[in-house]
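ERR on first pass: missing label on line 2. Operator R.T. fixed the label and resubmitted. Corrected input:
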Amino acid sequence: MSSPATNRGAKIYLAGPDVFLPHAAELGQAKKRLCMTYGLLGLFPLDNLPDVRSAEPVDRRIYAANVEMMREADAGVFNLTPFRGPSADVGTVFELGLMIGMGKPVFGYSNTASSLRARIAGAARDSTTGAWTGADGMTVEDFENADNLMIDASLAASGHSIVRVDAGARIDRIEGFEACLNSPPPI
Amino acid sequence: MSSPATNRGAKIYLAGPDVFLPHAAELGQAKKRLCMTYGLLGLFPLDNLPDVRSAEPVDRRIYAANVEMMREADAGVFNLTPFRGPSADVGTVFELGLMIGMGKPVFGYSNTASSLRARIAGAARDSTTGAWTGADGMTVEDFENADNLMIDASLAASGHSIVRVDAGARIDRIEGFEACLNSPPPI
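pass 2 clean. output:
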């Protein structure tokens, strides 16, 4: 992120599967406190109050509130730690795409240093063609990336590659989050 | 989509884990042929020719080419069938967010009628609190949605709920894809 001097008070959307943890509220508080030490204001999705006057179904109200929070944010920090499978949480990844589409600066971290390829069941390289496939017979990307190339490359293209931390793939570790707050300004 | 009369020649980005199938090229051809019968032009990511003069790494060239294809497209149709886990392919979901962020009409289908909740390992409801959690102790969304609420609600908000087809979760079935092409215009 930009230096605190130029960026003071910037609003940061705190995206991640953090919201699904039993201690989600505490983790959100910890992230918001850390933002404050950098002169930033963290916006945590669970702080949203979906419009109770709305006749919309609850899930659509939550969606609308999250989108509004992302519109309000100046940037986003994404927890891309694998969630219920080899890849990041799809809700988080949706939001990454959305904020890039909105033209906002994005930052991401994963609490594992492993590559996506290493996490796909039965991934093996054909010695003749050199191509990698999984146990499902489908292609495995061979880029040493943290996740699908659209994720890694989108972050690299926006000036900050995914921060990969060897932290046992625990969703709630925040060293990588702090490294994102410490990132240099976008190019 | 709008009626062919008003929408003739519209370019449709064909997003999905289709690209990872051994017969990806044939599936892309089948989708493009189907688009033609609706007066639409399908844009399939594997038809991209990443810029060979670029000094960028291959994954970043593929990313840039896909983003350019989405910018060129008038709308997107997303294959949201579960891929290597209970949820849709994260590359596809990233693109869904990106195209919504770009303000483009989006359509999606899944080749299973099951809910996300039914696909999460050990999902169970606490009889006291009523809350659902998975075997991992983390919250399971309780909306009967096809996937994470950001996916279902984003499509519903853009005027077309996910088309859910009972097709054995096979990535390569295209009834749901055709149903998307038959959708009424966005509200």
